[in-house]
Amino acid sequence: MRALDIIWRMAAMVLFSLAFLAAWELLVRFGPSRSSFFIGPIDAFAVIGRRFADGSLFGSIGATIARMLGGWLLASVIGILLGAAIGNSRLVDRLLMPTLEALRPLPASAVIPVAILVFGLNESMSVAVIAFGSMWPVLLNTVHGFRNVPAGLREVAAVLEMGRWRAFWTVSLPSAFVDIFPGLRTGLALALILTVVTEMQASLQGVGYDIFMAQRSYRSADLYAALLVIGAIGFTINQVLLIGERRLFPWLAR
Amino acid sequence: MNSHLISAIVPVSLLSGWELGSAVGAIDETTFSRPSAILRAGAIAAADGSLVTATYQTLEAASLGLFAGTLIGVTLGIFLGLQRLVELASRPTLEMLRAIPAIAFTPLALLIFGFGLTMESTIVAYATCWPVMIATLAATRRIEPRLLEVAATLEMTAIERLWTIIIPAVFGRVVVGLRIAIGFALVVAVTVEILVNPRGLGYALILAQQTFRTDLMYALIVWLAVLGMIAGALSSQLDRLSVPRSS
User: Fold this and answer.
1) Cα B123 from Cα B202, distance rounded (Å)
2) Does domain A41-248 have CATH number 3.20.20.80?
3) CB contact, 8 Å: B1 with chain A?
4) Which of A38, A132, B1, B115 is in the most buried spot, having the most CB atoms within 10 Å?
C-alpha cells in the first residue's frame, strides 16, 4: 500500500510539473504579450542542452558553487567560533553582543561597497560579502544552542570531572549542534543569493554573471536558462541539507 | 563591573581607535573615513533632503512589493491549503521556483519593466510572497475540518467561508510569515538598487563608493542599519499581535 501511495504521489507531481511547463509554453506562444522577453521552456531548455553539450555550463556552475561554498565555510567557521565563545561566556557575550547586534540589521548587500573599497572587484570581495551575510544565522543559532545546553548534561560533565575542553567537545558541542545545523542551512541559502549578487556586481564568472550578461546582450533564452540553473542549484542543496538534517536528528522529524 | 560599561568597551574603543588612527594617518581615509567625517556627511545628506528622498524611494518600493507579495502569498497559501491534491502535486514546481533567489530576476525584470519602481517592487513581491505563502499554507491546513464541514452544511458561499472561517483562523500565523517578509523587503529593495536600479538608498550607496565619497557611503550604511533595526522592531510588534490569536 505504502509503495503504491508513493508512486501515486510521484505521478501527481510529475503531471503537475509537465502541466506547468505546458501552460508556460502555451502562454508564451499564444498569450496576449508578443514581447521577445518572454521565453518558453522549450527554448530555455534548448540553451541548457547546448551549454551542457559544449561544456560551458559546468564552468559557470562550478565557479558559482565554489564561491558559494567558500564564503559559506568561512561564515560557518567564524559563526560557530564566535557563537561558541558568546554562548559559553557571559563576559564575551557582554563584550561583543552589542556591537554584533548593531551590525546585524545591516542588509548584507550594503557591505558590498565597503568590500569593493577594501578588496577591489574580485574573488576576495565576493567571498567576504558572502561570508558576512551568511554568518548571522549560524552565529545566532550557535549562541542559542550553547546557551540552551540542558543543565543535566552540564552536571553529568561536572560529575565525570571532565576538563573544560572535553566537556566542550563531548557534551556542549553535540548538544548545541541540533541548533547550529538549521543555522548552517539558512546560511547556505543566503550564501547562494549573495553569490549571485556579487557575481553580477563584480562580473565574476558564474551563473549570476551569465544572467547579467544575457540581459546586457538581449539574449532572453540564455537568461531564462541561467535562472533555471540557479533554481536547480538552490533546490538541490536545500534538499540535500534537509535529508542530512533528517538523518542526523531523526528524533526531530515531525 | 557594571554590565553596561562592559558592553560599551568594544564599540567605544573601536570608534575612538578608528578616529585616532585616521588623525595620525595610520588608517587610510579613502577606505575607512573617520567617524567624525561620517557623522558630518550624514548630517549634510539629512539636511539637504537627499537622504529623505532616497529613503522614501526605497521604502516605497519595499512596502509596495511587500503588499503585493503578501496578497499573492495569502491567496496562494489559502488555495493550496484547501486543495490538498494540488498542493501535493505542485510541491516540486513551487520548491524549484522558490529556490531561485529573487535578486536573480533583476535582469529579467529590467528587460520587461525598465528602470524604476515597478521593476523593483516586482522583485520584492517575488521575494516576500514565499514566507507568507508557507505560513498561510500551514495555517490553512490546521483549520479544524469540522469548521469547514459546518460551513458546507450551512451552504456558505466561498466568500462567506473565507471571511468567517478561513481568514480569522489563519491570521495569527500569516503574521509570522509577514514578519520574515518585512526583513526580506528592505534587503531586496536595497540590493536591486545597488545592482541596477538608479533610485533609493542602495543607488546612493554605490554612487557614493564610485565617486569616492567614502564618508557619505559609511553614513548611508549606518542609516541602513538603523532602518533595518526599525524594521526588526516593527516585526517584533507584529509578533505580539499574533500571540493571542494563534494559540
Assistant:
1) 15
2) no
3) no
4) A132
